[in-house]
Amino acid sequence: MKDSRTPFISIISVFLGSLQVFAQTPEQIDTLSASVIIADDDRTILSGLTVLEGKALRSCVSTFGVSDVIKTLKTLPGVAAGMELTSGLYVHGGDGSDNLFLLDGVPLFQVAHLGGVFSSFNTESIQSLEFYQSGFPPRYGGRMSSVVDITTKNGGPQLHGAANLGILDGQVSVGGPLFRDDLTYFVSVRRSWPELFIGPVQSIRNSKGDEKTKSSYYLYDVNVNLAWTPGTADAVYLRLYRGKDVFHYYNGLLKKYYGKEIYLRENYKRIDLDWGNLAVSTEWVHQFSKNAPFRLLAYYSRGASDIGYKTKDYRINSEETLDETTYSGQDRGDVSQLGIEARQSVYLNHHRLGFGAVFQLTNYLNPDSNDVSGSFSIFAEDKYTYGPWSILAGIRWDLYKFGDGIFSLPQPRMVVGFTPGPYLTLNATYSRMSQFSHLLTSVFLDLPTNRWAPSSKYLPPANADQVTIGWKTHPTTHLSIGGELYYKTMENLVMYSNGFTLFPPADNAYGDYACGKGRAFGMGLEGKFKTSHTETDIYYTLSWSQRLFSELYPYWFYDRNDNRHKLTIKHLWKISKKVDLDLSWEYHSGNRITLPEQVLIDNEGKTKLMHSTPNNMQMPAWHRMDMGIRIHQKTKRGHEGTWSLGITNVYCRKNPLLLLVSNDENNHEHYFLQGFSFPPFIPSVSYMISF
Amino acid sequence: MMKAPYISILLLGLALGCESTMDYPVIQDEGKFYLECFPSSATDSTLLVLHRTHPINKPREAYDWNHVQVHLSINGTPVEWAKSYDYGNGILLKTPTVPAEGDQLTVSIQDEGHSPIVAHSSVPTAPRFTYTREITPQWDDRYHILLEREDKGKREYFGVLLEGKHRHKTVFPDGRIEITEDAIPNLYYSVNGTYNISISDETEGRFRMVSVAGQQMFLFEVKEGEDNPFILNVDTETAEDRPEWLHIDIPTKRSTLFRVTLFRISQSAYRFLAPKENESLSGAGLISPFDVQGNLMDAFGMFDCMGGDSTEWEFSLSSSSGV
């Protein structure tokens, strides 16, 4: 499980092999940074918790040769896959904007690059990740479906680093002591270069004719961590994360205008977009005693997008001279948060007490609005163990204010664990989660045009109540089997209800958005079989997800991510000490979409396509196989080098990403569907060297 | 403005990948009725438009409307329809009977071999408003409608119908006066004053112009907590209102009558009607199923009463007086 060479996801779940961890006392913890993790460690009794180590994340089968946090999490049971190659995370019927992404405790608002094709997290900078689908500890709040708590690397006592060069991107990271032993640094930079491929293709196309199209895109991430440990009881961290996408598009057409003279001018349209995240934080960890670690975190987090557009046209006027028409605009969206959090843990015999407080001030800046909301939260929890029983009970209480609306949001949480024998563990959880930021989006893509808006009395905070029952058995040392049943209800979900636009109106959130309910239930199963040369993971999900938006439709209807079955099979074969081969096959029932089912030709002869139920059609089942080979070698200088060769979509399955209704050119009353899918059979190659 | 490049980029990316076509799945075997009927106390008549849809994966077939029976009752009393028009694929029924505030209406549609479609609705209270009038320095006629809200804490939905007609008043030498009126066939109006009548309020983009029973109507919502009274401005240009002459000694004065009718509509009617303004890409699978298909079981469309009240005014260059 903790084998660092494993290329697959390592999952530490309820009780499994965790009795050793559970038996740990704070005295056994070596470092202060570890104490923060282990002291707050709930993995011993929490169900729905997945822990991934950074090395496991980086060795997962990747798309375009880029390993990705969210795409890895999407394969887990209980998580719907969403749209292919995008980074939406739909947990237990959630809608993708209800996941709390924490980077070293700092909430992030924009977690995707390139419309969701890549997530914002550079796996090379990740030390470990905790992913909660249920049994949320009270210290987490602000989102209602899941928590992705990412811990990035610190420098460590020795100089180390890695560099990775792929077809589409590359990254370099380095860490170690800075001038003195108690001060360390870690820096990681990732940048993509798809423009290297797009540019020559466009140059060839632009060499013919008067029309010229230029576009470029790149993304980058930078993580900088400084750690200072002035003594055995204190540690201070300073962290910076910056991620950005930049996109430019230009389309020009050179035209002649015949007036008093012949004018040669270029009409053009251009779009300039950039969007991304900035997170800056400082953290102080102090041990008042061996049994009482304390943590103080202050941060600033900002997600912003800036969209500029400009067009220029010419026209001959009545005086036969040239008129120029310029149209330009700018659309900015910005959400920023200042937060401070204090957390204290105390260990007393069978009890592990934890309590703390969080204050957050959030500014939502949109083209037509500038809103500020504030929240104050306190939480307290106690983990009590006695014999085979473990109980974690706690409550989080959020006091949220926006405008003249004040909301009191108590959120009780409880986890009960029972271990009747060494091969079986059982657990049950209940949790209530509240969310007071809403992502306003009109399309199912992670676009920079999406906007965050605060909860208000018109768009009240969303709540989710969830109960789960989980179990885990490991009948042999090679085999472990586990599962979880869940039932979840959600209220005050938001759905855009006013036609197609890429710029959802953040200033009219309560006019153009409908509030609704959701319910989801199902079962997730997982099995793992491990030998000395192979590892096989199988994840299966049986699920239902439904929505009720009475303003739009009076009955419950299926959510678009209502995938009845989802199956993931991963297999690793360590062919030799130098070569690993891994295969991954994923399958899920098709997503649901709303398709017209009837044609109306009205009294004016206009055609209108009608549907009777939202999300009335299921797309074809989605399945894909990916393959990767890693070849390890030592360089002349003794560094470890790894060639990674991968193929995405080995058997060229055309999984429709979306369907468009079309009609025959010759027979307008004959309708058919056009399916669009990503390119099949995507090869990738990358080389990594680490020292 | 931004939509086309975005979609182009998206589709270009996808086109570089794979495109495939597939037959339409069979979702429904038979066509359905499509009904639109919004009875109101502020109209001259009640109209009902009834169409028949056909399954998207089947060819359209002629439909025999003689078998279809449409019944309307007000407080249990049947109302006689007259078929006003037959579109071939649909019919327009009309009755001069209009309901009053609080009336209960029921409509039923029966066809051979199908279970009847029944819908109920009651006439809501009419919106209350007052008005003032102003002749602007540009000689435009500005009409302020002050909407009085019933419950400021509740979101309300309204529709505005603007109608106009020309009135010709001829005074003959013997003192006889003849007045004729004809409806203005193309009363162009907009929300930004481009045409000869415009409508506005303090919030840009509030109005949605849709076609309701063949007439252009502005829909708008008034949010919870919005200031009271809500002011609606109706501006009319008067350049067209100039005297005409039947004979050099017989002047005919032409004036224009405007009628503004304010309707209170339900939230479901608003949700049904408002997206009509912006229908696109509904099948793309990229967007929410926003397009509300009505409030009828086993049929498309909407049967929903509107409470309405109206006011009229007459405008001419030489004299102006509200009616």
What does this molecule look like?
- The complex is a heterodimer of chains A (691) and B (323).
- The two termini of chain A are 24 Å apart.
- Helix content of chain A is 6%, strand content 60%.
- In chain A, the strands form eight sheets. Chain A has a 22-stranded antiparallel β-barrel.
- In chain A, a hairpin with a 2-residue loop joins strand 15 and strand 16.
- Chain A has one domain (19-690): Maltoporin, Chain A (Beta Barrel), CATH 2.40.170.20.
- Chain A is mainly β.
- Chain B is 7% helix and 49% strand.
- The two termini of chain B are 43 Å apart.
- Chain B is mainly beta and 323 residues long.
- In chain B, the strands form four sheets. In chain B, strands 13, 14, 17, 18, 20, 21, 23 and 24 form an eight-stranded antiparallel beta sheet that branches. Chain B has a five-stranded mixed beta sheet with strand order 7-8-3-2-22, with no helix packed on it. A five-stranded mixed beta sheet of chain B has the order 11-12-19-16-15, with no helix packed on it.
- Chain B is built from two helices and 24 strands.
- Classes of the chains: A mainly beta (691), B mainly beta (323).
- At the A-B interface, strand 17, strand 33, strand 34, strand 38 and strand 39 of A face helix 1, strand 1, strand 4 and helix 2 of B.
Please describe the topology of this protein.
The complex is a heterodimer of chains A (691) and B (323).
Chain A: H1 19-23, H2 32-39, E1 49-53, H3 54-58, H4 69-74, E2 79-80, E3 90-91, E4 99-103, E5 106-107, E6 112-113, E7 118-119, E8 126-132, E9 146-152, E10 160-166, E11 169-178, E12 180-192, H5 195-206, E13 211-231, E14 234-258, E15 262-289, E16 292-316, E17 322-348, E18 351-366, E19 369-386, E20 389-402, E21 405-421, E22 424-435, E23 437-440, E24 451-454, E25 462-473, E26 479-496, H6 509-512, E27 513-530, E28 534-548, E29 557-558, E30 565-574, E31 579-588, E32 592-593, E33 598-601, E34 607-610, E35 617-618, E36 622-634, E37 640-648, E38 658-663, E39 671-677, E40 682-690
Parallel strand pairs in A: 4-9
Antiparallel strand pairs in A: 1-8, 2-3, 4-5, 6-7, 8-9, 10-11, 10-40, 11-12, 12-13, 13-14, 14-15, 15-16, 16-17, 17-18, 18-19, 19-20, 20-21, 21-22, 22-25, 23-24, 25-26, 26-27, 27-28, 28-29, 28-30, 30-31, 31-36, 32-35, 33-34, 36-37, 37-40, 38-39
Chain B: H1 3-16, E1 18-22, E2 33-37, E3 46-52, E4 54-55, E5 69-74, E6 77-79, E7 82-86, E8 90-95, E9 104-111, E10 114-122, E11 128-135, E12 141-148, E13 156-171, E14 177-183, E15 189-190, E16 197-200, E17 208-212, E18 215-222, E19 230-236, E20 244-247, E21 250-265, H2 267-273, E22 300-303, E23 307-315, E24 320-322
Parallel strand pairs in B: 2-22, 15-16
Antiparallel strand pairs in B: 2-3, 3-8, 5-6, 5-9, 7-8, 9-10, 11-12, 12-19, 13-14, 13-18, 13-21, 16-19, 17-18, 20-21, 21-23, 23-24
